[in-house]
Amino acid sequence: MGAEIGDGELGERLAARTLELVDIPSQSRAEGPIAAHVIELLGARDLGDGCVLAGSGAPVLLAGHLDTVPTQGNLPGRRDAERVHGLGASDMKGAVAVMIELALAGAAFDYLFFGREELPASDSALTPLLRRETLDYELVVMMEPTDNAIHAGCLGNINATWSFTGRAGHSARPWHADNAIHKMARAIAPFSELEPVEHEFEGLRFSEVASVTMISGGIATNVVPGSASCEVNFRYAPGRTPEEAEARLAELCPGELVVTSNSPSGPVPMGNPHVDRLRATLEWAPKQAWTPVAEFGRAGLDAINFGPGSPAQAHQAAEFVEIGRLVEAYRVLEAFAA
């Protein structure tokens, strides 16, 4: 690696790189410009479909996604003495900045950048890449926001549409109709009382949770609706198969339920010497979300989540990443590569 620099200079370098990346718009499906920027910076290999690989065959791969959710009035970015603010700062352009600066310093990793992570897994750019390219690594560090802890495994993620049928009629004479929205309201009311259900897997406690996330119905203000529907999201723990998870959701949502996507959970790597080295100095916790660790796991690759962003900041309108966290992540990985 290059000459050692102090934390102050490193922080300035990482903050500037993060702000540079934040200011390149890269909403999902529009990652072309930022992928081209990474290729130019690192002389990296263009794998197509917005995927970029740098390195020469190290045993450990650092992976980061280039895309963001839609803007919420948080572009362009800005910075102050302690934080970089803006779209994707925490999830996960700060992490991508750490990857780039490590690569430029010659840290002995390979580096994978990809897009469409913020979309449903069926639209991922990573799964097709793992099918068409042979990636052989002893460990993948997926640099999702973890506050610089190791988050192992990840939850599975089901999206489903729950539909209700009634009978349309005039709102002045509702007794001649059967209100589908009222039916839906009664059915979804118990969701407000649902408590997280803890499941232990490989010594970690994951919380299974179900939420109604969207509702729709009605055609006019003077018509009792004859149909209505809602979108339901279910996050399930490792150890439960996708089929078991769908069966559980069907118990929670009796009636007409159509699963629109089901992204399996991610395994917890046990007995991996690289993971054991990192666990010796870092907090070890479950990943209470779905991440591409699941995709790497299905491809037969051990993977963990580790990154400088904060999970609480992801997708926030006022999103930021702390510069001190960027420096800390860099130093952890710098030592790990040595």
With strands numbered from the N-terminus, the spatial order across the biggest sheet is 1-2-6-3-7-17
Kindly provide the name of the CATH class of the largest domain.
Answer: Alpha Beta
Main pleated-sheet profile: 6 strands, mixed
Oligomer state of the chains in this structure: single chain
Low-confidence stretches: none
Corresponding CATH architecture of the largest domain = 3-Layer(aba) Sandwich
Total number of helices: 9
Global Rg: 22 Å
Q: Can you walk me through this structure?
A:
By secondary structure, the chain is an alpha+beta fold. It has 2 domains: 7-154 and 266-337, Zn peptidases (Aminopeptidase, 3-Layer(aba) Sandwich); 156-263, Alpha-Beta Plaits (2-Layer Sandwich). It has 9 helices and 18 strands. The chain has a 6-stranded mixed beta sheet with strand order 1-2-6-3-7-17. The protein has a 5-stranded antiparallel beta sheet with strand order 11-12-14-9-15. A 3-stranded antiparallel beta sheet has the order 4-5-18. A hairpin with a 2-residue loop joins strand 1 and strand 2. Helix 1 crosses helix 9 and helix 3 crosses helix 9 (323-337). It starts with 6 loop residues before the first helix and ends with a helix. The model has no long low-confidence stretch (mean pLDDT 96).
What key attributes describe this structure?
alpha+beta, 2 domains, 338 residues, 27% strand, five-stranded antiparallel sheet, six-stranded mixed sheet, Aminopeptidase
List the helices and strands and how they pair.
Elements (H helix, E strand, L loop, with lengths): L6 H16 L9 H11 L2 E4 L2 E4 L5 E6 L12 E2 L3 E3 L3 H16 L5 E5 L11 H7 L6 E4 L7 E3 L3 E10 L3 E2 L9 H9 L8 E5 L2 E14 L5 E2 L2 E10 L5 H11 L3 E8 L9 H7 L4 E3 L6 H6 L4 E3 L14 E3 H15 L1
Parallel strand pairs: 3-6, 3-7, 7-17, 8-16
Antiparallel strand pairs: 1-2, 2-6, 4-5, 5-18, 9-14, 9-15, 10-13, 11-12, 12-14
